[in-house]
Design brief:
The chain is α/β, with parallel strands linked by helices and about 475 residues long. It is about 30% helix and about 15% strand. It has 2 domains: about 5-265 and about 445-465, TIM Barrel; about 300-430, no CATH class. α1 (about 30-35) packs parallel to α2 and α5 (about 155-165) runs parallel beside α6 (about 205-215). The termini are close together.
């Protein structure tokens, strides 16, 4: 394989190897600090990051506010303190080697307030801010305020074009790189547009080449493009290294760093990764963000899929084929189904799915009484972790603090499930019954000889292995 030389990123020479900034508690100060100490760029997640008590134990993020807005303010305070805590840990572990980045999601609740609070409280500790999940137009303005580099995550040249023309051209000197995240292969939330088919992946090379051609029009010839999503062995990307058409390219690893000694995920999660098979990672559309996301197809996703399959359309007055009356809720208020759908509904009720819940699309889904209670309790307990949530109908925009739509019971509380798997994933049951984000290549843990006999490397060993091409 071609030698992978150091590259100037964010104003310094580093290995062009970047730790992906995985969500709640999954990329933290320990994992990112060790990645930076190995000579690359470590990225901790500033999405509701953990703080610790005097004994070093993670402080549970327990919400006591009576209203959503009160709980939202608690969430912001947790997130800022946690981000500062992780930045300090990463900085100390890195020891001045490599770079430390913070990762945020633009569509998380109060994203601007959180990252500003973290940067204010961790001055001089964070070298760059990586941001995706939305169109972060104000990212460059925030970076300029604190003198840090910024790294937008995009999945197309068109998205970067919009960001550049609206805002980024004003702060061109701090644009440290552009992360191209493959919307079919990356783990977590993906940037598939309405014109792209989730079932028909496109090769990344022409899409990245299109991005580079656009960047050259803006004078960004030497600004690195960071390839993210689907990167496993660098020898498979050898044609990208020192390719004059692509210009400087760095590589981001999100999935492989999950399986390291320093990774904060529990033993149950790590063992599940070692046993995945092709097809076990599922690109789905259940997220309350409205984005597609990539996750392990476990019991959690099975239940969501089954929930949506037990679904029929209804109308409030008889019209067309919708003439069969059906009683909904404790008062059995009448809606109208087609005769065929009435048979489906009666069959589901006979099987124990006796609770019919209305969706924003004038449909009913059928769940057990226990699941109906869980859904309602989770919706009521919302703390506004997203800028807009289709599950609870929260919006962090005043004055209504609502999306204006009916809460959607086909989705789920993402804060609850990610906090659970992030902190309790030593249990196989927790791993099976919570959202487990993963890149599409996670099944390769089981066949990559580096992980033979259940071997779990340190971050340093992983970076050294990656540098060999494998």
């Amino acid at each position: 394989m071609k030698p992978l030389n150091a590259m100037r990123i964010g104003g310094v020479e580093v290995l062009p190897l970047i730790e992906g900034g995985k969500g709640i508690s999954i990329s933290n100060g320990i994992s990112s600090g060790n990645w930076a100490a190995a000579g690359g760029i470590g990225t901790f997640s500033a999405v509701n990051a953990d703080s610790y008590d005097a004994q070093g134990r993670a402080i549970p993020q327990t919400y006591r506010g009576r209203t959503r807005r009160e709980r939202h303010e608690e969430l912001i305070a947790f997130a800022i303190q946690g981000g500062i805590t992780q930045a300090k840990r990463a900085f100390e572990l890195a020891g001045g080697i490599g770079r430390i980045h913070a990762n945020i999601l633009w569509e998380m609740g109060a994203a601007e307030r959180v990252i500003i609070g973290v940067l204010e409280g961790a001055k001089g500790l964070i070298n760059g801010v990586t941001c995706g999940a939305g169109m972060p137009y104000r990212l460059s303005e925030i970076a300029s305020r604190f003198g840090v580099h910024y790294y937008p995550i995009v999945s197309s040249a068109r998205a970067f074009n919009a960001l550049w023309k609206r805002a980024y051209h004003k702060v061109a000197d701090l644009l440290g790189g552009v992360v191209y995240e493959d919307p079919w292969l990356a783990g977590g939330h993906n940037g598939l547009s309405n014109s792209e088919d989730p079932g028909k992946p496109e090769a990344p090379f022409p899409r990245v080449l299109s991005l580079r051609k656009l960047m050259r029009e803006f004078g960004l010839d030497q600004t690195p493009i960071i390839m993210a999503g689907g990167v496993w062995w660098l020898e498979e990307w050898e044609d990208w290294i020192d390719n004059p058409d692509l210009g400087p390219v760095a590589f981001q690893f999100g999935t492989r760093p999950l399986l390291t000694k320093e990774s904060p995920i529990g033993e149950g999660w790590k063992q599940r990764l070692l046993k995945l098979k092709p097809g076990d990672v599922f690109l789905n559309h259940f997220s309350p963000t409205g984005f597609y996301s990539s996750a392990v197809n476990n019991g959690f996703l099975h239940e969501l899929k089954a929930r949506s399959e037990r679904q029929v359309a209804y109308v409030n007055e008889p019209i067309g084929e919708h003439v069969a009356p059906f009683g909904v809720g404790p008062r059995k208020r009448i809606v109208y189904l087609t005769p065929a759908d009435l048979e489906h509904a009666q069959g589901w009720e006979a099987a124990g799915f006796t609770e019919a819940l209305r969706t924003p699309d004038s449909t009913l889904i059928f769940v057990t009484p226990e699941k109906a209670v869980e859904i309602r309790e989770d919706q009521v307990a919302c703390m506004g972790c997203l800028s807009a949530c289709r599950f609870s109908n929260w919006s962090d925009h005043a004055p209504e603090y609502s999306t204006g739509k009916k809460a959607d019971p086909r989705s789920f509380c993402i804060q609850k499930t990610l906090q659970t798997i992030g902190h309790q994933s030593s249990s196989a049951d927790t791993v099976e019954n919570n959202l487990m984000f993963s890149g599409a290549n996670a099944f390769r843990f089981a066949t990559d000889p580096f992980y033979s006999n259940g071997f779990i490397p340190t971050v340093k060993q992983l970076v050294e292995r990656i540098l060999t091409g494998r």
